[in-house]
Amino acid sequence: TNGDRTMTSIIKVDTLQKANGGTPTAADLGINTTGTILQVTKSVITSQVQGVSTTWLNTAHSLVITPKSNTSDILIQLYSGGISMNNGSPADNAIRFKRNGTVIMSNDRHGYTDDGSWNNLNWSSFYIDSPSSTSTLTYTVEIYGNRARFNDSNSVLNTSSFYAMEIAG
After folding, report:
1. CA–CA separation, 108 vs 31, rounded Å?
2. What is the pTM of this model?
């Protein structure tokens, strides 16, 4: 025992290397990073997109992210504003997320008013994607609905933000 003496140590290094000369990861050093945010990408747009009844339209949001690990999840978030006119009947408006051109999430919204006026229609959509990949991924957003305007200047929220966050697995 060292009795009442306190021992302190400082280790200073310029570089840590694995036995094979490679750079160690946090896991190699015994550090658990599960659940931490490793990187974030963001897209903000203000351009208006008018929906069409039978066609999905690209909103101009596009995010590129390259996961650091194939066990990571990607949290996709969209906050968007818009307006919808329902003309006294239900309006079918929807948003969907795509990864590399493939649909990974679709979120239908239905609205109803009798006055035939434009009304605020705001989306807040989230999705956790598990791509099992370290390849570059491109995420996009599309809208659907002949009586919906995405990012309309008359809406309460006329700007939209789209995020992709890599979460360590």
Report:
1. 41
2. 0.77
